[in-house]
Amino acid sequence: MNKLFSSFILATLFCVTNVSLAEDHHPDKKTFKVTELKPGFQFLQGKGGNILLSAGKDGLLIVDSDYSEMTPALEETLAQYKSDLKYVLNTHWHGDHTQGNKTLGKKAEIIAHDNVYQRLNSRQEVKLFNMVSEPYPADALPDITFDHSLTLRFNNETIKALHLPNGHTDGDSIIFFEKANIVHMGDHYFNGMFPFVDVESNGSVRGIVKNIDGMLNQIADDTIVVPGHGPISNKNELIAFKEMLVGTANEVEVMMAQKMNLEAIQEKGLSNQWKVWGNGFLNENVWIGIVHSSLTKDAEK
């Protein structure tokens, strides 16, 4: 563990008393809430990352696969559509989006960025959540990988996966369904809350901002925006999320320039306008720690 990240973890443990971690983000339940977005497209919310389902003449396709413990409930939900699951697209490597691969990958093709394959095929850690991910079995690894982008034609839809480098991780993809005008943002977007940015997996707060900026020109005002976590959204709410990232990062950067250490920045806190974002996944002190770690790593490049 490097010195920077050790400092972050210690500050988190000693300065934060009410940390909302990944397992607490969604209720502890073994069912999925299913919402129809458009004919043939369902929004599934379970315990982990949000799932987008395409159901049609060619079969079933899902974006992300939740935790392993949710797989029976996911299979039960998919069985209602009386068709075979053909594809699983992973937006990135984290277990709350990929553990379902371990069962679903035995009968469906898995698609993801090259770096997702590399990380799922090796031991990974997320120290903030004390999480260790051992290498996935062969059936759970992506069968089809890509570098920059991939196009899939399925269920009379043109589906485009686009790699967004150094954002939430180094292997993130967003998934466009062009005809339906739906985009799954993966964990580039936590709707209404401070996000987790996996700096140790080469993620970057500024990188997410850059990537979202690049996507906004490709998203229409009426595009349905599926976040990695949180409720169904739209372009205006995505812009508000980006503005929060910019505003909070700028505030932390100013305090860092004033030679304030992490503990002092956490004690001072962010402007009141950002307080509401700390009522969801992560509280303000943890978010400040992530931003501090990200900006420090960016400065070292």
Question: Could you describe the 3D structure shown?
Answer:
The chain has 301 residues and is an alpha/beta fold. The chain has one domain (27-243): Metallo-beta-lactamase, Chain A (4-Layer Sandwich), CATH 3.60.15.10. The chain has ten helices and 14 strands. Strands 1-2-3-4-5-6-9 form a seven-stranded mixed sheet. It has a five-stranded mixed sheet with strand order 10-11-12-13-14, with no helix packed on it.
Compact description:
The protein has 301 residues and is α/β, with parallel strands linked by helices. Helix content is 33%, strand content 22%.
Number of helices: 10
The low-confidence parts are 1-26
CATH architecture: 4-Layer Sandwich
The CATH topology annotation reads as: Metallo-beta-lactamase, Chain A
Reading the helices and strands in chain order gives HHEEEEHEHHEHEEEEEEEHEHHH
* Name of the CATH homologous superfamily: Ribonuclease Z/Hydroxyacylglutathione hydrolase-like
User: Which geometry do the CA atoms define?
Assistant: globular
**Count of DSSP E strands?**
14
Percent helix: 25-40%
Main beta-sheet strand count, sense and barrel state: 7 strands, mixed
Structural class based on helices, strands and sheet pairing:
alpha/beta
Order of strands across the main sheet: 1-2-3-4-5-6-9
What is the number of domains?
1
CATH class: Alpha Beta
Q: Radius of gyration in whole Å, from Cα?
A: 19 Å
How far the N terminus sits from the C terminus, by CA atoms, comes to 18 Å
Sheet-strand content, in percent, reads: 15-25%
Indicate the mean pLDDT.
92
